[in-house]
Write a structure and sequence with these properties.
By secondary structure, this protein is mainly α. It is built from seven helices and no strands.
Length: 198
């Protein structure tokens, strides 16, 4: 197709190369909101508020998946991360009796070091992703990349071990929170018993 024919086709559809569609505008707006929620998550001094802002950030990522027509991945994001990981995090905060209000201990005064590490990690991640998928082409005639069939094949053929390792990690975190809470309760009962004996 000649460039003139391409320009005529773009004019007929009403969308050029630089003219964004409604989905693209929504994608950018939701992405900015998700980025803001993530920034508040790591900067707030209240642990419970951080967990709730994490819910907003993970929900924004699920909306981004929906806008990319990857419905299965979006619902997995909602069910696993919003429905399991955040609930596990909140249970861990409650079981370890974390402070509800502002916690001065949550700030280690290393913000600039943390910001530098975050920027280096982000640049490294972007470089790795761009280098890995630079020559990757999406087959538009094949099944959708976010469909249940394709996602299931990729998950259970290539990513089984990381998936199971994540499950064990979450289980270990829950067991650790229970052990810490029972140890505190046992220590408090021993102190009470000693006080009564005196």
């Amino acid at each position: 197709m000649t460039p003139a024919a391409t320009d005529l086709a773009a004019a007929a559809t009403g969308h050029g190369f630089l003219s964004p569609t409604g989905v693209e505008i929504a994608f950018v707006l939701v992405g900015l909101a998700t980025l803001g929620a993530a920034a508040v998550t790591v900067t707030t001094k209240q642990l419970v508020h951080a967990a709730l802002w994490l819910v907003v950030a993970l929900g924004g990522i699920a909306v981004e998946y929906l806008l990319l027509t990857a419905e299965f991945i979006a619902w997995v994001q909602v069910l696993i991360y919003l429905g399991s990981v955040v609930v596990l995090l909140l249970f861990g905060l409650m079981l370890t009796k974390a402070p509800i209000g502002r916690s001065p201990d949550a700030d280690s005064n290393n913000r600039w070091v943390a910001l530098g590490v975050a920027l280096v990690a982000a640049a490294s991640l972007v470089w790795v992703v761009v280098d890995a998928f630079r020559t990757t082409w999406i087959d538009l005639d094949g099944p959708a990349q976010g469909s249940t069939k394709v996602s299931g094949e990729i998950l259970f053929q290539h990513w089984v071990l990381p998936f199971e390792a994540l499950s064990v990690l979450l289980l270990a975190a829950l067991i650790g929170a229970i052990v810490l809470s029972r140890r505190d309760a046992a220590g408090g009962s021993d102190d009470n018993t000693k006080g009564q004996q005196r």
